[in-house]
Specification:
The complex is a heterodimer. By secondary structure, chain A is α/β, with parallel strands linked by helices. Chain A has a domain of 159 residues: P-loop containing nucleotide triphosphate hydrolases (Rossmann fold, 3-Layer(aba) Sandwich), CATH 3.40.50.300. Chain A is built from nine helices and ten strands. In chain A, strand 9 and strand 10 form a beta hairpin. Chain B is mainly α. In chain B, 63% of the residues lie in helices and 5% in strands. Chain B starts with 5 loop residues before the first helix and ends in a 14-residue tail after the last helix. The chains are: A alpha/beta, B mainly alpha. Chains A and B meet through helix 2 and helix 3 of A and helix 8, helix 9, helix 10 and helix 11 of B.
Chain lengths: 252, 392
């Protein structure tokens, strides 16, 4: 059963066709990779999915409900979380506070006036935030300033914050960009663990083929705003069109 | 105690003690000594410090926590004053109905202005609030003359209806019969300390306001406001709508401003449109930044520093300076006096400006950061660079 249905999405920026008639169907419980050369429209597509951009044409259905026309926070409350290319965390807050905010969002919805409630009474929130920090292996950093962490840690925190909301669909925009090899391998392990242990569908944009082929069950290749091929990793590796458009002559 | 942890409780107790002993603390020099003119312990100034402390505290909830810089909070101060005076005129000279109405009216007014202004952020938000305040000022000055008495300002008159206490001939606001202008003087060792009912009333309200601020800072709501300042993008992609949070912060700070405006009218039952001028809104920005935006005590310190400078430095005119430097040879005395005259008397604002520049350049965290650095030096500790607990 597909959790996300993208139909005939088109988006123009002036004279540039960023997305042209994109059709995509993401199966529930899979890891689906979007690959393609720079400017293929991968990030634009992701922005459409989370409500940051409104497409000119087409429809996006998440679990039978339309996503278009909703604000980003409403789409998130439907169960779609996103990890950004550069980690977007609350830099001025501590790691623990960073983790508590999505827990509040999960429990209270998009707004609640809890101006005179006390943090120490929120035992449930504190417990689930701590649990997630343990799972992300960063409980020892709980009092740390989030902005002071390394990029790899920020990325892990951001993924943890998304998971704390228990989303049904997790979108990852180049989660290993700019990471050292060891960090990349850790991220791969983490993502594999997430997709195996949790009931989460993952859509991942990635340039690093090592990451793509070790994680993805389905791969869609985008080029110039249109999906070129969609297939399993093994078939994609050998696909002549893909080699031509993206991998060049030097295969992986 | 009171829903605070140990550290915050002791912090609150220190603040309560400091406030209660203000008549002593601001009167350090003995009467008749050369330094006596630096004494700030008279009721009018002390009450102003408490009132503007409340104003700045509320402003800090918006600016310090969410980072939204409003130049329009003078409008809420003015609305608060007008509401209080109207309550005195129509209902009773008791202070409570007056300040309650101030807070409610200012809250409603800030809801309206906040709803419009918060559609934008950053500099556009600031300009919108500035425009709204200026508009309110102009309207109060002209169109709304029946409500505001225009240029003359709204004041108490013998013919006011005062439904509840028309029989009372008094012309001053009271606290269940106790007139706020009542003062008790205490003379000890050549010092004169004045205890004024009005000041203590403002001080108690200021302490309650401070306690509420402390609770808000430590609440999940306070954390959300800091999240707004830190990263709005992540906030909306975490399923939270930043707009109601910022609007709530705006309304809360507007209510604090209304409370301060009401208290100004309580101390002196007269409300004029100049209270809504943008310079007043600018002053509260300076108070907050000077003391330390985002800290609990900073805005109050900033308000105190500015009101003290305004009242004390502006009194040092050329005659006073001449008496100070009379020991110098004549020509030199004139030069020195005319130099210092730049910074005192009418030029007190220049001193304030220089102080503000120095603080912003060398102590971005305001006076509070300065205090922390000194404290760390005393304890021979290296100043920890990323301050993990910005809320003090």
């Amino acid at each position: 059963m597909s959790i996300l249905e993208v139909e005939n999405i088109g988006k123009r920026f002036g004279g540039l066709k960023a997305l042209d008639n994109v059709n995509l169907s993401i199966k529930e419980g899979t890891v689906h990779a979007l690959i393609g050369p720079n400017g293929a429209g991968k990030s634009t597509l992701l922005n459409v999915l989370v409500g940051k951009l409104v497409p000119d044409t087409g429809s996006v259905m998440f679990d039978g409900q339309s996503v278009l026309g909703r604000a980003p926070h409403e789409i998130n409350q439907m169960g779609i979380s996103r990890v950004f290319q550069t980690p977007e965390i609350f830099g001025d807050l501590s790691v623990m506070e960073n983790m508590m905010i999505p827990c509040f969002a999960k429990r209270d919805g998009s707004f609640r006036m809890h101006a005179l409630e006390r943090m120490m009474d929120e035992k449930q929130i504190v417990a689930s935030a701590e649990e997630m920090l343990v799972e992300m292996n960063m409980i020892d950093k709980r009092e740390m300033h989030a902005a002071a962490m390394s990029r790899g840690d920020k990325r892990r925190l951001e993924i943890g914050m998304c998971l704390a909301q228990q989303p049904r669909l997790l979108l990852l925009d180049e989660p290993t960009a700019g990471m050292a090899r060891a960090d990349t391998n850790n991220t791969i392990d983490l993502l594999r663990q997430i997709s195996e242990e949790r009931d989460i569908t993952i859509v991942i944009i990635e340039h690093d083929m090592h990451v793509v082929f070790s994680l993805a069950q389905r791969i869609t290749v985008l080029a110039q705003g249109t999906p070129l091929v969609e297939d399993t990793p093994d078939n994609i590796k050998g696909h002549p069109k893909v080699r031509e458009a993206y991998l060049g002559e030097t295969a992986v | 105690m009171l829903g605070l942890n140990k550290r915050d409780t002791s912090f609150l107790i220190i603040v309560i003690l400091l406030t209660m002993f203000t008549p002593f603390l601001m009167q350090p020099f003995s009467e008749g000594s050369a330094m006596a003119q630096f004494n700030g312990g008279y009721p009018d100034l002390m009450a102003k410090v408490a009132i503007f402390g409340i104003f700045a505290m509320g402003f800090n909830i918006l600016f310090g926590l969410t980072g939204y810089l409003s130049f329009g909070h003078a409008a809420f101060l003015g609305v608060g004053s007008y509401s209080a005076v109207w309550m005195f005129k129509l209902l009773t000279l008791n202070v409570f109905p007056a300040i309650i109405l101030s807070v409610i009216v200012a809250g409603l007014f800030s809801l309206l202005i906040g709803y419009i202004s918060l559609r934008r952020s950053g500099i556009y938000f600031s300009i919108l609030t500035l425009a709204m305040a200026e508009m309110s000022y102009r309207l109060a000055y002209s169109v709304f003359t029946p409500l505001t008495n225009g240029e003359t300002g709204l004041q108490l008159r013998p013919g006011d209806p005062r439904i509840l206490d028309a029989a009372d001939a008094s012309r001053y606001p009271n606290l269940f019969g106790l007139e706020l202008s009542t003062s008790y003087k205490l003379e000890v060792l050549n010092h004169v300390f004045t205890f004024n009912v009005g000041f203590y009333f403002c001080a108690v309200i200021a302490i309650i306001a401070f306690y509420l601020t402390l609770r808000i800072f430590r609440s999940p709501f306070g954390m959300m406001l800091r999240a707004v300042k830190s990263n709005q993008n992540r906030m909306s992609f975490t399923g939270l709508n930043p707009r109601p949070y910022t609007l709530a912060a705006f309304v809360i700070s507007g209510m604090y401003a209304g409370l301060a405006g009401g208290l100004l009218a309580v101390m002196d039952p007269l409300a004029g449109a100049e209270r809504m001028q943008w310079t007043v809104g600018g002053e509260v920005v300076i108070m907050t930044i000077l003391g330390g935006a985002g800290t609990l005590l900073g805005p109050v310190l900033g308000a105190g520093a500015i009101k003290y400078l305004e009242n004390i430095f502006s009194k040092i005119n050329e005659t006073v300076l001449h008496s100070w430097f009379s020991f110098m040879p004549d020509g030199m005395e004139d030069v020195v006096v005319s130099f210092f005259a730049f910074f005192t008397g009418k030029g007190w604002a220049l001193t304030l400006g220089l102080m503000f520049m120095l603080v912003v350049t060398f102590l971005p965290g305001g006076l509070v950061e300065g205090g922390q650095r000194i404290w760390n030096k005393i304890r021979r500790k290296k100043p920890d660079t990323p301050n993990n607990n910005p809320a003090e």
